[in-house]
Each structure stands twice: as structure tokens, then as C-alpha cells.
Amino acid sequence: MGTRMDILDKSPAEIVEILKQIGEQGFRGKQVVNWLYKGIEDFDDMTNLPMTVRTKLRERYVIGRVNQMEKIVSDKGDTIKYLCLLHDDNIIEDVVMGYDYGNTLCLSTQVGCRMGCSFCESTRQGLIRNLEVGEMVAQVLMANTDMGTVGTGERNIRNIVLMGSGEPLDNYDNVVKFLRLIHDPETLNIGYRNITLSTCGLVPGIRRLADEDMPITLAISLHAPNDKLRRRIMPAASAYGILEIVEAAKYYFERTGRRVSFEYSLMDGINDGSDEAMELGKLLGDFPCHVNVIPINTIEGAPYNRSPEARIQLFEKNLRSAGIQVTRRRELGQDIGGACGQLKSGYLNDFDGESFS
Ligand code: SAH
After folding, report:
1. Is 93 a catalytic residue?
2. What's the DSSP call for residue 132?
3. Is 340 a residue of the active site?
4. Residue 95 neighbours by CB under 8 Å, 6+ apart
5. CB 119 within 8 A of CB 233
6. Helix (H, G, I), strand (E, B) or coil at 118
7. CB-count exposure of residue 87 (10 Å: 0-12, 13-18, 19+)
8. Which residues pair with 105 in a beta bridge?
9. For 93-119, what is each residue's pLDDT tens digit?
10. How confident is residue 49, by pLDDT bands cut at 50, 70 and 90?
11. Using a 6 Å CB cutoff, which residues line ligand 1?
């Protein structure tokens, strides 16, 4: 990208400042913001701006984008997976899921991940790098543009889940700036209630997020009811104990009024027994929260299998009888490798012969 900066890293207020710095009035900044979030990819297409302004902007900035390399639509047509190339040839994945209440984008916050969860594909190669604010914005614009309805249509992305590759709280500042940015009525106007951030349980980050005055939904990947088991499957569990995590979740609820979701991926014979369900019920007690049960998506080389349906249902039943609200994650995109934990960014870099097409 050379020395020019990505203008998508900037908030509307910062863009107004940029325009002032090049000798223009503030309203020009609003015009620029308007074009950017319509999905315009070239300053020259900002037709209500004088040529001189467009030139000055082009000299200093680029409009960053993620370049769609591949688009895979599920058999049922309700899930689309995109492979996108970044300016430095790294690759990330995005998934769009169609729901009755609008399209949801599952986006990536890092290239790779350093959390090391043993059942997750995205972490296998460790962390390559954090994504910039503009690279997260560009993922949303790419999806909106691809659906052909930028700025007008019903089919725009209405909901965002930070469940692609990466640990969002490990890229804290960029993620929070990105969320504030897309929430802004001048950009995409995405409601905080329509945003879910999923974390493997980084306690300081959860507490900090609680104080941001940004009432998004927090999802915490628990996957086990106690530290011993959790540490076996998630290395991050060694840094933060489960009781600390539940305390942080309670703090989040107190500060934001938003119910926390706990993610629980069921692995046959590992964490899916009645004992574990009971223990989880006890742990969460009367804390108003949800448990989101996800049958594990098997990935190559990991020793985990999907629990049989009867066992999944029994687990859910046990939790319900402990007074816990349980939902089963709708399973979308498995046939296109677009389901939770199946995303594998950087696949071209390691040429391991695997293909998504
Ligand atoms: N780093 C964040 C986001 C990860 S992806 C986090 O840890 O929460 C979102 C969810 O998918 C997490 O709950 C993650 O634990 C889960 N997940 C990862 N691999 C999975 C797999 N193979 N099957 C089912 N869920 C998986």
C-alpha cells in the first residue's frame, strides 16, 4: 500500500479533520464518508467533489479493500463463504449467513490466531498479524457490495459476529474502534445489539469492554465446566480461571445490561456428559445468561468427534433442568467449510494441497 494510508481506518470525525487539513470545508468530509460507505472504491467516483480535492485525497490515501478471490455458496444457498486477499497477500475468510431477520456477517479480526484452541482450524499456524480497522470495515463493504444492494437494500449486512479467524480481544483497540465506526449513523448504522463479539475468555479485555459504553452482545467460549478440562482443550484457560471468567461476565452484564452467551462446543466423550452439564448448570447458577450449544465441527487431525444426537439432546435437557437457557446454534455452511472453527486463513501460503472449491 506504499506510504499512503487507508482512509477506511478513519472515523467520520477524523475524515472531516483530514478534509480541513487540506483546506476544505467540513461538509466535504461528510460527502467522502457517504461515498466510502456506499462501497465506492476510487476517489474519482466521488463525483460531487471537485477534482482538486479528489487528487489531494488520492495523493495521501487509498481506499482499502479486501479482494474477493473465491466465493462459495452452500447447497441450500443460505450461507456464502468468501476467501479474501489482503494487500500483503495474506488471506482471510468471511461467512455470510442468511437469517429471517437479515444477513449476518461472520468476520475475521486477525490473520490466524495465537490462542491455540485444540479443536479450531484458525489457530493452527499461530498468529500472523492483527487486522487494521480499515480491513475489518472493508470486509463489511465487500459483503454489502457483493449482495448488490449497498446503501439501499434489505439484503445489506444487518448483523455482525466477530467469529471468523482471530481473537477479537487480542486486537482490542482496532476492534473497538471498528465497532464504534460501523455503529455510527453516518457510516453503516449497525446497532450494538446486532453485534456479537466472541472471546475465548481474556478476562482483562472483557472487563475493559464492559466499561466502553458499547452494549454489544458478548459471547464467551467456555466449552468446559471446570479448569481442568478447559485447560486440556484450550491453552488460554491456563491464563484465566473459569471462576474469574464468570465474574467478568457478571460484571459485563451489570455494566451493559446485556445477557452474556456462553459457547459450548460438544465433543463426543470429552465434555458432553451429564456430569459436565450438571457442573455447568451449577457454575452458571442463577446468572441470567444463555448457553449456546454447538456440535463440534470436526477438523482434520484433531481427536474430536461430533456427539451423537441423543447425547446432544440429553446435554441440553440437563442444562435446562438446571434452569439454564439453552439454544442450539443453527448449523450453517458445513458443506462449504464455512462452519465454526473450519475457517482456515492463509491456505495459499502453506500450499498443503487442501482446497475449498
Ligand atoms: N476467538 C474467538 C472467536 C472464535 S470462533 C473465541 O474463541 O470465541 C467462534 C466460536 O467457534 C468459538 O466459540 C470457538 O471456540 C468455536 N469453534 C472453534 N472451532 C470449532 C469447531 N471445530 N467446532 C465448533 N466450534 C468451534
Report:
1. yes
2. P
3. yes
4. 79, 80, 81, 82, 105, 106, 164, 332, 333, 338, 343
5. yes
6. coil
7. middle
8. 96, 160
9. 999 998 777 799 999 999 999 999 999
10. very high
11. 115, 117, 119-120, 163, 167, 198-200, 221, 263, 265, 294, 296-297, 299, 340-341
